[in-house]
Design a protein that fits this description.
heterodimer, A: about 300 residues, 2 domains, 4-stranded antiparallel sheet, B: mainly alpha, 11 helices
Amino acid sequence: MSDAMITVRNFRKCYGATVAVDDVSFEVRRGEIFALLGPNGSGKTSTLESLEGLRRPDGGTLAIDGMDPTRQVRRLCNTIGVQLQTSALPASMTVEEAMRFFSSYHGVKPRFDLVERLGLAEKRTVQYGKLSVGQQRRLALAIAVAHEPKVLFLDEPTAGLDVQSRTDLHAMIKDLRSRGTTVLLASHDMAEVEKLADRAAILLQGRIAATGSPRQLTAAGNQRTRVSVATENGTLLRSAAAFPEALAAGSSGEYAFYRSSNPGRTVAAILAWLDTAHDPIVDLRVERPTLEERFLEITSTGKGAAA
Amino acid sequence: MSAFVHHLAYDFRTGIRDRSKLLMFYLFPFVFFFVVGAFMVQINPGFRAVMIPGMVLFAFMSSALQSLPSALVQAREAGVFRSYRINGVPSGSIMAIPVIGALVHMAIVTVVIAVAGSRLYGGAAPASLPGFAAAAFLSFLAYAGFGVLIGVAAGNVNASILVSQLLYIPSILLGGIMVPAEMMPGAFRKIGLLLPASHSMRLFTGLAYGGATPWLSLGVLGASIVLSFTLAALVFEWDSRAAQPCRRAYLALLVVVPYAVAAIVG
């Protein structure tokens, strides 16, 4: 892949005798949002921090836009923007000072428009230590993107944010991607990854268990599509009717549930059966397995499949 | 405005804005000076001879030993250095800028103590202002070197406070700050040579008050400054969550070598 902005090959990271990441390889293309998923201790942060130059790999090769993060630290700083999971600014530094301070080290003009866009306009003179967690994370993001980095690393970017801030942040990430920024995102939030990421890798015990687009990842699982049906007379609730390639999955209220490996055939058969039973449909829902369900399947079985 | 100047200006402002720094840079030294100055001259008129350099050194120790090390350890533990590193702040700036910022604050404190000491309490005014400035500058750098070294080598805030106190309290008692060294028993004078305060007081006497040039103390403080900052650069860690603790931390102990030599030959 010639357009790779981030290249990770056979990456290994150990802490003493503990192997945190073992033989991990992936590439992230220019302008792509790539997510690293995994339970705590799966190696997401070790991978991210090694790519950011904060940790030294114990094996394999890492490259950001052709640069070695362990050797070309100074150049790397202006190429990447980072919102760390665990970092802080000096408690007495105000929002305005922080933007000026870090912009000066990147050699760019301070971007107060970003401060405003991230809802911190009224907090410009407030010290970092007096900001809420969400405000601190938004400030960290504003600083991370102020120098318009080619590659943006986000480690749990929406942790501690309220719904509105989360929506604003998602919009900003999408906007950055549309302008060619490559984003590597580590997250626990499956809905966020499903919504934002072009591709994702699921890390399990320091190894990649599955990789692909969120749709490919969910399609590769053993989970079946859920079909939920509510009718006027509730005949399905009282019937033991069987439908092709579907298993009855119980009921709740006026809904009967089925798990189908071929939702098209199953739905067609249900509609035909209800027509014969003269029971009009009130609601019919077909829901493919979510990334969260696929993630839980992989983490519980330890098996995944590369798409 | 360059990044360095921005950083320095910010650091200088925190010396007033940050309560713990304000306390150690200004409040504690001034309260100590005004209270101790008032009664020490009554108890011991000889104190007037050492009052101004002694109180200036006390202020230097408060800022360099009580404030600098814990500020560095806390910043590292909080992840501030990680933010600095990914944004291209050099490690040299992280160590040098707090020293320069504190130096500017200490210059202000020194002027106040020198003027008020001689006007209010009859403290001996320096015979040579350039000599006084040189002695103060070298003394501050010697203490700041210790402060930075403790800050980067200490594993946590408690350790930094403990090590700082090991230097701070003996310096007040045996460094010639409260009692002129000539009035101390020989053994205590010898032990005092293990402390930068004793050499600083000799420097003030020699350079600012018309005494002989104290070549040994000049050499010891010079070597201490070079050693402490060099060792701090070697021991510096960006991250307190490093996989393995810095095995070079013990190198910091080498900073006592010039003082040990002085105690042997002095």
